[in-house]
Amino acid sequence: MRTVCIIGVGMTMFGRFPQSNVIELGRTACLNAVRDAGVATKDIQVAYAGHARTGQLHNRECGVGQSILWELGISGIPVSSVGNFCSSGSTALREAWLAVGSGMYDMAFAIGVEKLTGREGKGRPLTSDGVELLTVMGFSPPVYFGNVLTRHMKEYGTTMEQLAMVAVKNRRNAGPNPRCQYKDPITVEEVIHSPVIVDPLTLLNCCPTTDGAAAAILCSKEVAGRYTNKPVEIAASALCSGPYEKCKDITSFGADRLAALNAYEYAGIGPEDIDLAEVHDCFTIAEIVHYEDFGFCKKGEGGRFVEEGMSGMEGKIPVSPSGGLMSRGHPIGATGLAQICESVWQLRGVAENQVRGAKVAFTHCAGGFQDTIELGDIQSSAVTILKRGW
Amino acid sequence: MTADNSGSKAKVQEDLVDPKLRPLIRLAGSPSEKPRLIGSKCKSCGEYFFPKRVLCPNCLKEDVLEDVPLSNEGKLYTYCIVKAAPLGFDAPYAVGYVDLPEGLRIFSPLAECDKERLKIDMDVELIVDKIREDKTGQPIHGYKFKPASP
Ligand SMILES: [Zn+2]
Known about the structure:
- The complex is a heterodimer of chains A (390) and B (150).
- The two termini of chain A are 19 Å apart.
- In chain A, a hairpin with an 8-residue loop joins strand 10 (360-369) and strand 11.
- Chain A has 390 residues and is of the alpha/beta class.
- The longest helix of chain A is centred in the C-terminal third of the chain and has 17 residues, at 332-348.
- In chain A, the strands form two sheets. Chain A has a nine-stranded mixed sheet with strand order 3-2-4-7-1-8-11-10-9, with helices on both faces. In chain A, strands 5-6 form a two-stranded antiparallel sheet.
- In chain A, 36% of the residues lie in helices and 19% in strands.
- Chain A has two domains: 4-120 and 210-235, Peroxisomal Thiolase, Chain A, domain 1, CATH 3.40.47; 132-207 and 236-388, Peroxisomal Thiolase, Chain A, domain 1 (3-Layer(aba) Sandwich).
- Chain B has 150 residues and is mainly beta.
- Chain B has one domain (3-147).
- Chain B has one helix at 3-16, and strands at 25-26, 36-42, 48-49, 65-69, 73-82, 93-100, 104-110, 123-133, 139-147.
- Chain B is globular, with a radius of gyration of 17 Å.
- The chains are: A alpha/beta (390), B mainly beta (150).
- The complex binds zinc ion.
- Zinc ion is lined by residues 42, 44-45, 47, 56, 58-59, 64 of chain B.
């Protein structure tokens, strides 16, 4: 594998855009990325589009990437869809990284897009893909994380206040970021007393329903020098399915631990080298578990980590400086690439909520539940490590 | 009660069970019996699975799995109480994961949704009861665990 760099990124505003469709959202993100990179569209040789629900919600299972690129006049190149739950966008990035890293192509497009508003069953939790037997018995993503939370509280004494501090921190981080769906500050009291969705999870402990798109342009390090003096290197991109351990510990996600381990090893770094992290904070308890699974703190100490400000802007590892899924929103297939956009801006030193002197960024997306009644693992976890290439 | 009557009663209850869950449950045939969940056990490596599997992933053989009734008593590993219900479900309802002695940790609706009466590691026992309603308001049954009688 040769070194691959990101030379351009772009995204839409994230929010509720009932009048938009996935193609328009994708077009805007891609155009922003092309302008940011300063490339000619004819130089893009391959593209991957991540989306997870366009088939189920908009009768568009395939061809999303082709249709978006058609709008930009990009044709005659290999384009494929990447469906991988909440990691769809991160997986599209990884495919693009492999395509350029292998030497087969010099420049690639990674796109992530999703439109979740306007779905049936508005106001009720989005059901999970697959897991038919679980769904007929009342399962949904917040149910899984509610179960994680009850056990985490019992084993480690994690409190509602500590959980709320994750939401409060991520909302504070979102304040200056115009792309976030929610930017107004919230308090610990407001989070705790918001309507209960799945006891013990209240509404403000859950990420919102959102539309949006994000994209990145990748090329070899050699080619990158022609376009920018600030190329962002992909130091690692790891993707793992679940380890599917029998009677697994619900307070830790095996796929995430493996993906992080593989990414650290490939990049030759450890958690102590990370300047910021954008993690999959779909629920506040998820962010607390991620601190532990990624080695930001010891197992069971995630609640204290946020309480002591260690994941805050001035802490050991600022987590979700962009506002995270909690504030930006979570258009499933777009999230992984939105994290990449925000992290590239951090490494260039131009983010609205800038982590001073950031040189190494860690991003993480995960999703999908093991399709069985036995307690299973997350089916897909993607960890990407970016670093300054200058 | 005649054999015919109990047979038709069982048939009525079976019809109420969600068709997707029917292969997973063996209803009580008589008042003295208890309902059971049906899983698989591998004759070769001894591992249990729920629901049933066709291929043992450890042995990569298809002819080694046999149907077995699982224990109808277990321990509550974790739980939560749903307040914003998906379509067809009545909030509040509780769901959780139950540890069975066969080395299985399985998802299950719970018959109790009072937070004061649910405790991690409490003993629970299997029943078959209403889990939700269909579009016409007809009850749909499935398996559930309830706190074990002391
Ligand atoms: Zn076996």
